[in-house]
Specification:
Protein name: UDP-glucose 6-dehydrogenase
Number of domains: 3
Distance between the termini: 60 Å
CATH superfamily of the largest domain: NAD(P)-binding Rossmann-like Domain
GO molecular function, one term: UDP-glucose 6-dehydrogenase activity
Number of strands: 14
Strand content: 5-15%
Pfam families: UDPG_MGDP_dh, UDPG_MGDP_dh_C, UDPG_MGDP_dh_N
InterPro entries: 6-PGluconate_DH-like_C_sf, NAD(P)-bd_dom_sf, UDP-Glc/GDP-Man, UDP-Glc/GDP-Man_DH_C, UDP-Glc/GDP-Man_DH_C_sf, UDP-Glc/GDP-Man_DH_dimer, UDP-Glc/GDP-Man_DH_N, UDPglc_DH_bac
Structural class: alpha/beta
Enzyme class: oxidoreductase
Largest sheet: 6 strands, parallel
CATH topology of the largest domain: Rossmann fold
Strand order of the largest sheet: 3-2-1-4-5-6
Bound molecules: uridine-5'-diphosphate-xylopyranose
Number of helices: 18
Radius of gyration: 24 Å
Helix content: 40-55%
Length: 436
């Protein structure tokens, strides 16, 4: 099959490279000339484990091409995927569809023969209808069908998520388009994933409802963690105990600093707004948003309390800046709330992140960026673990103890065992776990 992907950002690039790896002929299009130039040399602009290799392999096999020229690639395609960004519109939380609609217009002007246009970007319910309307206005003779095929991949494990998804959701009403989507995903659903066909609006809502549900699950366990601290229970035990109930499930029950990233904050806000506009508010999601924001605003307070009530003149050694491990993404990262608040309270923050330092610099200019974990901790009054990169799990604790000026550890991801930390002489503060 010939697939053209418009937008070579996160979703577009991962999807395009994976479809090519399954043997489809894929053209990835982006208006950013420098990005396309780099991709043609197999230089991948984002950090995602395995993506470099995947791009390189399929580029040299000739199954994957990169170009700024939309029209020729659309003309030849059986399926065109729109995978451009849908940022939050400034001033309100709605998804900005400017890029999606512009792509739709350009595709409509270029397509030839029956073409399935697939929305992969996260778009509000009804956006598929708008895309179809715009395309038919632009090119009344076009033979096309618009499908919604939301993407559920997670940063850091995007390739595995794409190749081994729990399900593939396709919202489409046209039988020819359904057949094309079946052919596109055949390499996947034959062995692994159920292909769920539904109507377009339901597919669009499935994406938002999934993300909002997961964000709710995280927020729920975070509040239970706070309660655990008060009543002397252990949130990890509680999460294990409830997660073994199949109806609840064990995943997304790790208490922490609150969810961040490019999807959950944006998508929960967009869903809450859409629901309000339709006069059917999802109050539980509105609450999740507010609770999560308050949690992030309170992070510095946790650190300050652990440091005996003041961080003025103290140095805080921060491990991890990205919103989660295996990514360099700083979007809505808890660090963006924690670091300025600590600085405002008089602290100096020295930080190390294996990948996100460059991204962090412009947001957090006053941080002292270290070249490795131990350097960040050298002379610090406290260790604060914010992102659970694997390499922080097995630190040489005796060395850390020597480097720290005071033996305070604030573990915002619960990666360390209290007993071990105490054995090394640390005063240890986890999330939702009884104090020693
Ligand atoms: C998410 C969805 O998982 C994915 O399906 C969707 O397509 C995009 O949004 P992503 O943002 O890449 O993916 O990361 P994810 O691993 O889901 O984590 C999101 C946030 O929740 C992170 O800030 C993470 O630290 C936090 N989280 C996750 C927790 O605090 N606890 C958990 O148990 C799980």
């Amino acid at each position: 099959m010939r697939v053209t992907v418009i937008g070579s950002g996160y979703v577009g690039l991962v999807s395009g490279a994976c479809f090519a790896d399954f043997g489809h002929q894929v053209a990835c299009i982006d208006s950013d000339e420098r990005k396309i130039e780099a991709l043609n040399k197999a230089i991948v602009p984002i950090y995602e484990p395995g993506l470099d290799e995947l791009v390189e392999r399929n580029l040299s096999a000739g199954r994957l091409t990169f170009s700024t020229e939309l029209a020729p690639a659309v003309r030849e395609a059986d399926v065109v995927m729109i995978a451009v960004g849908t940022p939050s519109r400034r001033g309100n939380g709605h998804a900005d569809l400017t890029f999606v609609m512009e792509a739709a217009r350009q595709i409509a002007g270029a397509l030839e023969g029956f073409t399935v246009v697939v929305n992969k970007s996260t778009v509000p319910v009804g956006a598929g209808d708008d895309v179809e309307r715009v395309m038919r206005e632009t090119n009344p003779d076009a033979d096309l069908a618009v499908a919604s095929n939301p993407e559920f991949l997670r940063e850091g494990s995007a390739i595995d998520d794409f190749k081994r998804p729990d399900r593939i959701v396709v919202g489409v009403e046209d039988p020819r388009a359904r057949a094309a989507m079946e052919a596109l995903y055949r390499p996947l659903y034959l062995n692994v994933a159920p292909l769920v066909f539904t109507d377009r609006r339901s597919a669009e809502l499935i994406k938002y409802a999934s993300n909002a549900f997961l964000a709710t699950k995280i927020t729920f366990i975070n509040e239970i963690a706070d309660l655990c601290e008060k009543v002397g229970a252990n949130v990890q035990e509680v999460a294990r105990g409830i997660g073994l109930d199949n109806r609840i499930g064990p995943k997304f029950l790790h208490a922490g600093p609150g969810f961040g990233g490019s999807c959950f904050p944006k998508d929960t806000r967009a869903l809450a707004l859409t629901a309000q506009e339709y006069g059917s508010p999802v109050r539980i999601v509105e609450t999740v948003i507010a609770v999560n924001e308050a949690r992030r605003d309170a992070l510095a307070g946790r650190v300050i309390a652990a440091c005996g009530g003041s961080v003025a003149g103290k140095r805080i050694g921060l491990l991890g800046l990205a919103f989660k491990p295996n990514t360099d993404d700083m979007r809505e990262a808890p660090a963006l709330a924690l670091v300025p608040a600590l600085e405002a309270a008089g602290a100096v923050v020295s930080a190390y992140d294996p990948e996100a330092t460059e991204q962090a610099r412009s947001h957090l200019p006053n941080v002292i960026y270290a070249g490795h974990a131990y350097e960040a901790l050298d002379g610090a009054h406290a260790l604060v673990l914010l992102t659970e990169w694997d390499q922080f799990r097995a630190l040489d604790l005796a060395r850390v103890r020597q480097l720290l000026r005071e033996p305070i550890v604030v573990d915002l991801r619960n990666v360390y065992a209290r007993e071990e930390m105490q054995r090394h002489g640390f005063v240890y503060h986890g999330i939702g776990r009884p104090r020693g």
